[in-house]
Amino acid sequence: MTPDEVRDRLRAGGLLGGGVVVMVSGGRDSVCLLDVAVAVAGRDVVRALHCNYGLRAAADEDERHCARLCERLGVGLVVHRPRRPAPPRGNLQAWARDVRYAAGRGLAVTSGARLAAAHTTTDQAETILYRLAASPGRRALLGMPDHDGPLVRPLLRAGLSRADTAAYCAAAGLPWREDELNGDERFARARVRHGLLAALRAVDERADANILRTAALLRDEAEVLDDVVRAALAGADEIALERLRTLPPALARLVVRRLAEDATGRLCPRAPARLDDLLELGDGALDVGDGARAVVAGGVLRFQPTPPLPTRP
Fold first, then answer.
1. What was the pLDDT predicted at 113?
2. What pLDDT score was predicted for residue 87?
3. Domains located in the chain, CATH noted
4. Most CB atoms within 10 A, among 32, 185, 261, 287?
5. What percent of the chain has pLDDT over 70?
């Protein structure tokens, strides 16, 4: 695939029209996306965001690389330098992702632009396998959407893989940086990439394509299931337990999850597993995990966010 063919494919995808903020790490995928965004949308409406977390010896050189790239392309660059709170808490990569997306969304809102992430079909396959191992439920198999509100993934919609973006950058004479942490198998994503996905490709060289095709089919089916859930709730944000008992168990679990997620504004994958407990609850409350609390009053089930723990005096 030539650079012109790549640009035509992303232009046809329709996610790069108007203003766009491209999150740029300096790796092949984001370098490719930024160059294509300039070609498709025009440099006047494209901005780049780079996050320098200061966690790697090469972090400052990554920043300088992004600055040189943006100067070459005539694109404005915003550099965000967060500092991880001490003592460190939670997953390092999750913290970095949350910081990056928060900074990107803030810049996109103030710019009246879309926020573009450089995820490829290779990332999609890895994400599905990771979620399948780490998170229960069918949503693990749906993968990342190619657009979600202001967040867009143009490379994913265009069907480009990591090999495609490397070929694009090489053909266009665009150097990129390699993040050594991508190969560090202390991180789960690296183990999926270099262990699990590699093993599946050894079984069948079409493994990536088969994973992606399965996810696409399941997303189509998910739309049907969402319609069924909406019909069962009939626009309400609660449901009578007696009505919930009459539903097929699979549908009842989907209803519970929808109510919990609508109430909390976040994913609640553990809520459906508490269906039997909810049906036996009677009037009372039950925390079902993921920040969701089920409340039954007068035989009617609704959800609310779990209240924060009281602070110690």
1. 94
2. 59
3. 3-203 (3.40.50.620), 236-313 (3.30.465.60)
4. 32
5. 95
